[in-house]
Design a protein that fits this description.
The complex is a heterotrimer of chains A (460), B (503) and C (131). Chain B has 503 residues and is an alpha/beta fold. Chain B contains 15 helices and twelve strands. Chain C has helices at 30-36, 83-86, 90-93, 118-130; strands at 9-10, 15-20, 23-28, 39-43, 50-51, 56-62, 66-70, 75-80, 102-106. A six-stranded antiparallel β-sheet of chain C has the order 1-2-3-9-8-5. The chains are: A alpha/beta (460), B alpha/beta (503), C alpha+beta (131).
Chain lengths: 460, 503, 131
């Protein structure tokens, strides 16, 4: 080896690696080899790298702060703009104590709780998280978490297929988040599952006639509020027989105020828990949730925590029904998932606990009322193409390309919406506007004024 | 080492009092409040929501104060052990130090408050960061492209096998089987099945590695790929990896590498130079992003030239003018593996770490991780039986053969380690070792901590001979003792319910 | 030492069948339940299912393992032990009694001759566990 740094040279010490240049010779003596290189003899020389990697560093914290902060400052974000973006990722109030608690080393730097005697903190909190999910969705059994809402929908489709008596078709509303449907397409591409998309009516709700007339499906997946912001008619959908009903929820705070899927006979609720106090952070990490009817619990993907007792009879919590999982059932497991989003689920548990029964309703009510206020202010200024009931997000249509209008708003330090044309053909003049409890009336008024001005400007 | 737990044969009182923390639901009391929102400053419209869509108050949801919540979770946290408190030697998990600068950088408001559906022009900083991370991983892995979309190791496996499937299908025959050695992680066969393949298991040889002739005999035109972990789950490097690649490639099949054990050779050798076609890297292992009690992680996938056309969309690309954009125009892509852009803020942490380590630091990781594992191996060999004696890199796998003679087994040894203040190693894995104790110390441990761990293991070995019942009934000092896992599985209680009498 | 009743016949996959008239009662052996440890779930076929000798009839789970169950003899399932749904531990406590799994109407009673006697099974288990 040439020109490679010698690990026993004190100049090569690194702050994350405690063993010193003095320790190494002594350890090699105990091992019984004369150099570190001997320990790598099993790696053939023709695959060894005879140079250092060509990457920057090592950097001190000072240099890291400088470079990364410079990058962050080049983003135009809610830091110095007012943002009205939703589309599956929502900026809500984040209680300060959540992040402080998540930084506790015992949560942050522990592993999956395979050894329950030394992991009761993680296990009990997952049990609490599972309970919150059941209460919010009105269903019976929740798992410990999945990657995100989109992959949770994939797992729900696969679960429904397993109990679907050999049927191979799934109906997915076109108004389900297009990224979610795209992810399902990727997941099932080799499994012989056919995806049929079902469109929407003029009110923005799913086309029930098309849904009813489609046969041979093992499952129906609808999102509510859907990607257009419109709240679906769960009862009408649930009345369709002989098929698993999957509810998708991408705006989790809506569960604080809207009737839950479990109350309408849905079999599976999946969704994205990001809205429960998790930063939007450019798309991840978030937390996927899945809650099912009791009869489906042994088909559930992912980890489950259950209550039991220890040898002294003391109540305690443990990972259970593990025979469903990949480390035991391997090729026949209900899912390949191992690492999940435990820390994010813990944050969600903290959020749901802090907000509680009254806070969850108040967040929902504020979102609803503020969105309604802005929507009414915009009526007449813009077209509101979908007439169905909404929660905190709605589609706006102007006579001009959305990108142009949104570009104008950006000059006013407003990140004004998500162009719908990026997702659906023929909607180039439409964009999605999301409002949460974080928006003040002044910001909503400013938005309405700026949008009106932008349209006038385009007209000239 | 003297018996530090001479008096610990009955449940320690300290442990008994520590676990009094009730469920958050049991702290609930009508009228308590843990939040405050600004007063609603718009006029309330009563019929903003049709009445039939509005739910009643969520029955049984909690009412607790902020103080209750902070105390509750602080108390819960004290029931966990963590890498910050000491050695956490789970084999195959790479429980290394989690630097806090990574946490600070990830929380920079410009990253944390950015939204995944912002226009590319508004998130140039994020896109540049992702672009740099791909460049860095390309160099570390020696692969021409890396997809940053997968959010976990198993997610990366699925991504990789889907790419193999799409590539093969494009050439007319997607094939039927994935070959997987019997020492593999359970996620490998599960991911292969999810991608539409059947699994054929290959037997390891007496060194725990895969024989070329076994592979040669198994590979035919029905085989899509071999999924192999390098070094394998015994910590043993597959020295014939290049020859394996050749055998597979000659039959048109692919070589998938489970990169869970990259910590053993990062900076020392590169998968791309071994003929590997696709590899996932668990950033929450090698690149220090915190495990968080089970996640989040990230599992970027590096691919060889042949598989580049199939990588998930979108990718991050740089224009000639130095600006960046998300690119969806890959006609042969397998598609999207997840909504949005992967676990971005895990990726931020990983790049921070890569910059902190630099080329010298990354190489030092592998060197010290391997010294540390071999030091434990040297100190424990003898008292603990080493079923596979081949030279190992970053981890070492013993079993309970010596202790079984005293009717003490791996589970007991693991539980007894808790009394000595250590998290146990991975146990009963890999499956090819009966009663496996799989130890991976990582580079984060100083010699003193390794010595303390080895002393504890040796003390337990003596206890197995002299006082086996003490070991069999361990742990004695933990917040709870051994659990009735059968009870949990027979009549599962998977959520809290309000006691009927309290209604 | 495991208990192996004389009046049953045994399969190499560790299921027993107890024949009375044209009905066979099927479960797993005492040896098998000890090897599995605490049984937590038993998945059984529906009444009416046709099984050939050696067909998979269901699965049995302990806390950290799952094993397939094979029918030691062919026939139609006439009854399944519903009690196992709530009390899977009966397989541990009374494998040949209350821990039975299914009853089948034998399609070809001659198949019984292909199964091991108690003595043969004990020998077989000795060799198996000696490995």
């Amino acid at each position: 080896m040439t020109n490679l740094p010698n690990p026993t040279d004190p100049n090569n010490a690194h702050r994350y690696i405690p063993n010193s240049s003095d320790d190494i010779p002594e350890m090699l003596r105990v091992i019984g080899v004369d150099s570190i290189d001997r320990l790598f003899d099993s790696i053939p020389n023709d695959v060894k790298l005879n140079r250092l990697l060509d990457i920057p560093g090592p950097w001190s914290e000072v240099e890291s702060r400088r470079w990364f902060r410079q990058l962050a400052s080049r983003n135009k974000t809610a830091v110095d703009h007012v943002s009205f973006l939703g589309g599956g990722a929502y900026a809500h109030y984040q209680p300060a104590c959540i992040d402080q608690l998540l930084l506790r080393a015992e949560f942050l730097t522990s592993y999956t709780p395979y050894q329950p005697e030394v992991s009761q903190g993680t296990l009990q909190s997952i049990f609490e998280y599972q309970t919150h999910q059941c209460l919010l969705t009105g269903l019976d059994v929740a798992n410990a978490s999945l990657y995100d809402g989109s992959t949770a929908l994939c797992e729900a489709v696969l679960l429904a297929e397993r109990v679907g008596k050999g049927k191979k078709r799934v109906l997915i509303a076109k108004s389900v988040h297009p990224h979610y449907t795209a992810t399902v397409r990727t997941y099932v591409q080799n499994l012989g599952i056919e995806i049929v998309e079902v469109g929407w009516n003029s009110d923005g709700r799913i086309d029930l006639d098309a849904l009813r007339s489609a046969d041979g499906a093992f499952a129906i997946a609808v999102q509510s509020p859907n990607f257009l912001g419109v709240i679906e008619d769960y009862d009408a959908i649930a009345s369709i027989a002989n098929v698993s009903k999957i509810a998708v929820i991408t705006e989790a705070t809506s569960l604080g105020i809207l009737t839950p899927p479990g109350a309408h006979g849905f079999d599976i609720a999946v969704g994205e828990g990001q809205a429960w106090g998790i930063p939007t952070q450019f798309g991840g990490p978030y937390v996927g949730f899945m809650v099912v009817k009791d009869a489906l619990k042994r088909h559930m993907p992912g980890r489950l925590v259950g209550e039991t007792v220890d040898v002294d009879g003391k109540r305690a919590y443990v990972l259970t029904l593990a025979t469903r999982e990949q480390h035991i059932r391997r090729g026949k497991a209900t899912s390949n998932i191992c690492t999940n989003e435990a820390l994010i689920a813990l944050g969600a548990n903290m959020y749901l606990s802090l907000m509680g029964k009254n806070g969850l309703r108040e967040v929902g009510e504020q979102c609803l009322q503020k969105a309604s206020y802005l929507r009414e202010k915009l009526r007449g200024v813009v077209e509101l193409p979908f007439t169905g009931p909404v929660y905190n997000e709605f589609v706006v249509r102007t006579p001009f390309p959305a990108s142009q209008i949104l570009g104008d708003l950006e000059h006013e330090k407003i990140i004004g919406g998500i162009p719908l044309g990026d997702f659906y053909e023929g909607h180039e003049n439409d964009f999605l506007v999301a409002v949460t409890e974080l928006h003040s009336r002044e910001q909503l008024d400013h938005y309405a004024g700026a949008l009106s001005a932008a349209i006038s400007r385009e007209r000239r | 080492m003297t018996d530090v737990l001479e008096t610990a044969e009955t449940p320690a009182e300290a442990g008994a009092t520590q676990n009094r923390e009730g469920l958050i639901f049991e702290h609930s009391k009508r009228g308590r409040c843990g939040y405050q929102l600004p007063k609603l400053d718009v006029p309330v419209v009563e019929n903003a929501l049709p009445a039939n869509l509005r739910r009643a108050a969520i029955a049984d949801e909690v009412e607790v104060s902020e103080v209750d919540v902070i105390r509750h979770f602080t108390r819960l946290s004290k029931l966990n052990v963590s890498i910050d408190a000491g050695l956490y030697p789970l084999g195959s998990c790479t429980m290394k130090h989690n630097p806090r600068i990574n946490e600070e950088i990830a929380r920079t408001p410009g990253f944390a408050l950015s939204h995944p559906l912002q226009a590319d022009t508004q998130v140039q900083g994020n896109l540049e960061l992702l672009w740099w991370l791909e460049q860095t991983l390309k160099e570390i892995l020696g692969m021409p492209r890396v997809s940053l979309q997968p959010v976990a190791g198993a997610h990366g496996e699925l991504t990789g096998i889907l790419m193999v499937h799409k590539a093969l299908a494009g050439s007319g025959n997607a094939r039927k089987y994935i070959l997987i050695p019997d020492s593999a992680h359970g996620t490998n066969p599960a991911s292969a099945a999810f991608a539409g393949y059947q699994v054929k298991e290959l037997k390891s040889n007496s060194r725990g590695t895969l024989d070329l002739h076994v592979l040669q005999e198994a590979v035919n035109e029905d085989v899509a790929a071999l999924m192999i972990t390098v070094p394998n789950t015994l910590g043993v490097f597959e020295s014939e990896i290049k020859a394996m690649a050749k055998i597979l490639h000659s039959k048109g099949a692919y070589l998938y590498c489970d990169g869970a054990n990259l910590n053993a050779f990062v900076g020392v050798a590169r998968p791309g130079d071994m003929g590997i076609d696709v590899i996932h890297s668990n950033l929450h292992k090698t690149f220090s992003t915190p495990h968080g009690g089970g996640g989040p992680g990230a599992g970027p996938v590096g691919v060889s030239e042949r598989l580049v056309p199939f990588i998930p969309t979108p990718t991050v690309e740089r224009r000639e003018d130095g600006t960046f954009y998300l690119d969806d125009s890959h006609p042969d892509s397998i598609g999207r593996m997840r909504a949005f852009n992967g676990n971005f803020n895990v990726l931020v942490r990983a790049l921070t770490y890569m910059r902190s380590m630099g080329p010298t630091g990354l190489r030092r990781i592998a060197q010290i991780a391997v010294i540390n594992a071999n030091y434990i191996r040297a100190r424990l060999k003898g008292p603990y039986y080493l079923p596979y004696d081949a030279p190992s890199l970053h981890e070492v796998v013993f079993n309970d053969k010596n202790q079984s003679a005293h009717d003490v087994h791996t589970l007991d040894i693991a539980k007894r380690l808790m009394d000595y203040g250590f998290h146990p190693p991975t146990i009963y894995f890999p499956l090819i070792v009966s009663g496996a104790l799989m130890i991976e110390p990582t580079e984060s441990e100083p010699k003193e901590e390794l010595d303390a761990f080895c002393d504890a293991m040796l003390a337990i070995a003596r206890e197995c001979e002299e006082r086996p019942e003490l070991v069999r009934s361990a742990p004695h000092t933990t917040p709870v003792r051994r659990l009735d896992e059968a009870r949990a599985a027979r009549q599962p209680i998977l959520r809290w319910k309000k006691a009927p009498s309290a209604r | 030492m495991a208990n192996t009743p004389e009046d049953n016949r045994y399969a190499k996959s560790h299921e027993y069948v107890h024949v009375e008239g044209d009905t066979g009662t099927i479960g797993i052996t005492d040896y098998a339940q000890k090897e599995l440890g605490d049984v937590v779930f038993v998945e059984l076929p529906q009444v009416g299912t046709q099984l050939d000798m050696g067909d998979e009839l269901g699965s049995i789970e302990s806390v950290k393992a799952v094993s397939e169950l094979f029918s030691p003899i062919g026939g139609e399932v006439t009854e399944v032990n519903e009690a196992l749904a709530d009390k899977p531990e009966l397989v541990n406590t009374d494998p040949y009694g209350d821990g039975w799994m299914i009853k089948i109407r034998l399609s070809s009673p001659d198949e019984i001759d292909e199964l091991m006697t108690a003595e043969d099974y004990d020998d077989y288990v000795q060799t198996e566990s000696g490995k």
